């Protein structure tokens, strides 16, 4: 890359930008931010990412620095788009659940496809399950044993661009989700049902409590779910805080490129063991707290997790990126306007979605009840699945 003229002036900058106004800022990355970006796959300009995400409002020392900074941004942006054009999403990753009740589809009114899976008791009370981010309909399998115990029917759904669900041309919001749930409920001839959103699925469960009729939706559950950005992320772990800021501030094309490089290429490998080794063992377990990392000591849980994430990325990273941007954008409704019954379960040792989020939301939703689970972390909260499902299916 050719350096800018060290004697560049404001007029030179205006000419370079083609008259565009720029609000870009510069900063010196901290050791922590350097550690974060060093984990990003090779080819990403570390300084650009660090400066873009962790700006600290200090002025540029020269016009020359600004020109070089903008050049690096534009080069990275073009490189990401070029890579994606050359490597379009491959066919759906194979899983052991194909051609079973875990791989069903519905054609919606607009002609798009919705993927869903069914687990638990076929004649039990229905609970629609909304997966985390990333995740897929297969995540609902983790609740199957609890569903059988309480006579519940768990129906996991793929969100747009995930698994079998069509990626729409336009970008969606949280309020686009409840209608898809209702169409599936009508298709399955369900007069009444509950919903449960875990982690990144939590906001979608709250959206249902906001928009679906109370004569159809019995109760909305949130298990360690994400809250709106106004909750603040001060009580999250430092690594999780940086990850949240990355999802919030990084342009979608950059985020898509990173996810494709780090995860998607392994998810689409025909050998599922590649994903377990390259992603679960070398990336995910390394950043999780010890209590959560122990989840993968069970080979069955590890295999199920791999199948879930491979389906999440089966169409490429775009579904995950859009899902993330929906969650981390301002929600299109006020918590005070959520009229349905909402139950929230959060672990006291959760550093991903801490109690701060839950208390913030419970205080503002008129029909919300928070249950604080002592000693539970983000992933171990699922051990109380029987209690959670029993509450969700209980008569009103």
From TrEMBL:
Instruction: Fetch the Pfam families from UniProt.
Output: Abhydrolase_6
The cross-references to InterPro entries, in alphabetical order and at most eight, read:
AB_hydrolase, AB_hydrolase_1, AB_hydrolase_fold
Domain AB hydrolase-1: from-to ranges? 130-389
Gene3D superfamilies attached here?
Answer: alpha/beta hydrolase
State the name under which the record lists this protein. Answer: AB hydrolase-1 domain-containing protein
* Originating organism: Extremus antarcticus
């Amino acid at each position: 890359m050719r350096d800018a003229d060290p004697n560049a002036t404001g007029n030179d900058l205006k000419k370079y930008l083609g008259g565009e106004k720029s609000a870009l800022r510069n900063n010196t990355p901290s050791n922590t931010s350097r550690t974060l970006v060093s984990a990003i796959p090779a080819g990403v300009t570390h300084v650009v990412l660090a400066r873009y995400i962790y700006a600290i409002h200090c002025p540029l020392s020269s016009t020359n620095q600004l020109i070089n900074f903008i050049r690096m941004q534009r080069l990275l942006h073009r490189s990401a788009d070029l890579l994606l054009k050359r490597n379009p999403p491959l066919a759906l990753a194979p899983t052991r659940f194909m051609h079973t009740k875990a791989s069903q589809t519905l054609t919606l009114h607009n002609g798009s496809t919705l993927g869903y899976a069914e687990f638990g008791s076929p004649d039990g009370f229905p609970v629609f399950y909304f997966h985390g981010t990333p995740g897929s309909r297969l995540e609902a399998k983790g609740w199957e044993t609890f569903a059988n115990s309480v006579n519940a029917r768990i129906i996991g759904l793929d969100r747009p661009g995930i698994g079998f669900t069509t990626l729409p041309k336009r970008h969606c919001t949280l309020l686009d989700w409840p209608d898809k749930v209702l169409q599936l409920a009508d298709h399955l001839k369900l007069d009444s049902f509950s919903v449960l959103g875990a982690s990144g699925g939590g906001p979608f469960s709250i959206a249902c409590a906001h928009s679906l009729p109370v004569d159809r939706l019995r109760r909305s559950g949130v298990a360690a779910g994400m809250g709106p950005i106004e909750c603040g992320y001060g009580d999250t772990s430092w690594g999780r805080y940086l990850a949240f800021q990355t999802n919030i501030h990084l342009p979608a094309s950059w985020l898509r490129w990173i996810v494709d490089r780090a995860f998607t290429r392994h998810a689409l490998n025909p050998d599922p063991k590649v994903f377990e080794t390259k992603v679960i063992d070398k990336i995910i377990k390394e950043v999780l707290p010890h209590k959560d990392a122990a989840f993968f000591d069970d080979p069955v849980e590890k295999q199920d997790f791999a199948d879930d994430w491979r389906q999440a990325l089966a169409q490429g990273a775009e579904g995950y990126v859009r899902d993330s941007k929906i969650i981390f954008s301002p929600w299109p409704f006020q918590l005070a306007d959520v009229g349905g019954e909402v139950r929230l379960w959060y672990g006291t040792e959760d550093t991903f979605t801490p109690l701060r989020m839950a208390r913030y939301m419970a205080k503002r939703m008129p029909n919300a009840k928070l249950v604080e689970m002592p000693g539970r972390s983000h992933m171990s909260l699922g051990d109380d699945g029987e209690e959670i499902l029993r509450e969700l299916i209980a008569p009103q």
